[in-house]
C-alpha cells in the first residue's frame, strides 16, 4: 500500500440470518452453517460509517456501524435479532474489500436527521455464543486436554486453532478424569489458564495464544509504503515491569488484528511487535479511514 496512491475507498455491509440447526445455536465464519440466506442483504454505495474495537480479551470485540438512507424495509430488517453482520472495507487500488469485522447484532435502531435516515447497529464478535453457550460433560481418565478444549469450542460453534491441536503440552491427559459444567467462556478460561494461554474470538474464529505468541503467519509490514501515518511512538508501560506500548497510526489496514506479528519499518522505530489493541475507523463520505494500533515488542 502506498499512501498517496490510495484514494478510492470501498466498503460493504452484509447481513445474514442464522441458519437453523447450527451446532450450539451459533454461527462461525469457518462453519458450513455460515451461509447467505435468501433474506441476506448487501449494502454498498450508501454512506457507511464504522468504528471497530478489537483486543485480545475474551470479552467480545465490538463494532458500531452507521448506514445512511436505507429503504424503509431494509432499516427494519437490519435492526431485527438475531442477525450476523459482516463489514468489509479497503482501498480499490489495494485488492479492494477485506474483512474488517464479523459478529452478532446486539442492538439496532434507526433515526431521522433532517432529511436523512441513519440506521445504527451495535455489534459484538461471537456475542451470542459468549453469553449463552454452556457445557456439561464428564470425561474418563486418560482424556487429553485438547479433546476437552475441542468439545468446549464446539459448543460455541467454533473449532480449535491449529496451534492448539498440535501443542504437545495440551496433549497431556487427565489422570483421574475431568468434568466441565457451566458457561463455556468460563470453562475455556479454566482449562487454558494453567498452561499460560488466553483466548478470544476474532472475526468469528477462535484464537488461543500465550502472552508472547503470535499466529503462525508472516509478519504484516507497517511502513510508509503500506500506509503508515506519522511516526510510531512509545508510551508508558501498561503495568510496572511491562514493556512500553507502541502506538501506530495507518491508513485503514483491515488485515491487522490483535495478536498478529507486525514488522514496523519507520525512520525512528524498526522492529518486530505484536498487536494488542486495534481500532478501525471509517467513513465512506468523510475524512476518517484509519487503523490505530497498540503493540508491544515481540521476539
- CATH architectural type of the largest domain: Beta Barrel
Beta-strand proportion: 35-45%
Q: Specify the biggest β-sheet.
A: 13 strands, mixed
Question: Which consecutive residue ranges, at least 5 long each, have pLDDT under 50?
Answer: 1-5, 27-37
Q: What is the typical, i.e. mean, pLDDT?
A: 89
Span between termini: 25 Å
User: In the residues, how many domains can be counted?
Assistant: 3
Q: How do the helices and strands follow one another from N- to C-terminus?
A: EEEEHEEEHEHHEHEEEEEEEE
Radius of gyration: 20 Å
Classified by CATH, the class of the largest domain is Mainly Beta
Oligomer: single chain
Shape: flat
Total strands: the figure is 17
From the 3D structure, determine the CATH topology of the largest domain: Thrombin, subunit H
Structural class label: mainly beta
Number of helices: 5
Helical percentage: 10-25%
Describe the structure.
There is one protein chain. 12% of the residues lie in helices and 41% in strands. With 299 residues, the protein is mostly beta strands. β15 (261-265) and β16 (270-283) form a beta hairpin. α3 packs antiparallel against α5 (184-192). Mean pLDDT is 89; it is low at 1-5 and 27-37.
Amino acid at each position: 500500500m502506498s499512501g498517496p496512491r490510495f484514494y478510492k475507498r470501498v466498503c460493504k455491509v452484509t447481513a445474514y440470518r442464522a441458519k437453523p440447526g447450527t451446532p450450539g445455536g451459533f454461527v462461525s465464519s469457518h462453519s458450513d452453517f455460515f451461509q447467505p440466506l435468501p433474506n441476506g442483504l448487501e449494502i454498498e454505495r450508501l454512506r457507511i460509517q464504522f468504528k471497530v474495537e478489537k483486543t485480545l480479551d475474551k470479552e467480545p470485540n465490538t463494532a458500531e456501524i452507521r448506514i445512511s438512507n436505507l429503504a424503509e424495509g431494509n432499516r427494519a430488517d437490519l435492526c431485527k435479532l438475531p442477525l450476523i453482520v459482516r463489514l468489509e472495507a479497503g482501498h480499490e487500488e489495494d485488492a479492494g474489500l477485506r474483512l474488517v469485522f464479523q459478529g452478532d447484532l446486539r442492538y439496532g435502531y434507526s433515526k431521522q436527521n433532517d432529511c436523512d435516515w441513519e440506521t445504527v447497529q451495535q455489534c459484538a464478535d461471537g456475542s451470542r455464543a459468549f453469553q449463552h453457550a454452556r457445557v456439561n460433560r464428564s470425561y474418563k481418565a486418560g482424556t487429553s486436554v485438547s479433546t476437552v478444549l475441542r468439545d468446549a469450542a464446539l459448543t460455541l460453534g467454533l473449532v480449535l486453532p491449529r496451534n492448539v491441536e498440535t501443542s504437545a503440552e495440551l496433549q497431556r491427559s487427565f489422570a483421574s478424569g475431568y468434568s466441565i459444567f457451566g458457561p463455556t467462556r468460563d470453562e475455556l478460561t479454566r482449562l487454558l489458564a494453567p498452561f499460560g494461554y488466553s483466548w478470544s474470538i476474532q472475526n468469528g474464529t477462535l484464537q488461543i495464544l500465550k502472552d508472547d505468541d503470535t499466529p503462525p503467519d508472516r509478519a504484516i509490514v507497517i511502513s510508509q509504503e503500506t500506509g503508515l501515518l506519522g511516526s510510531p511512538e512509545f508510551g508508558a508501560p501498561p503495568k510496572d515491569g511491562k514493556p512500553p506500548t507502541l502506538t501506530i497510526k495507518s491508513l485503514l489496514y483491515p488485515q491487522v488484528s490483535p495478536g498478529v506479528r507486525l514488522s514496523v519499518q519507520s525512520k525512528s522505530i524498526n522492529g518486530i511487535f505484536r498487536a494488542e489493541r486495534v481500532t478501525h475507523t471509517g467513513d465512506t463520505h468523510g475524512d476518517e479511514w484509519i487503523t490505530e494500533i497498540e503493540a508491544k515488542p515481540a521476539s
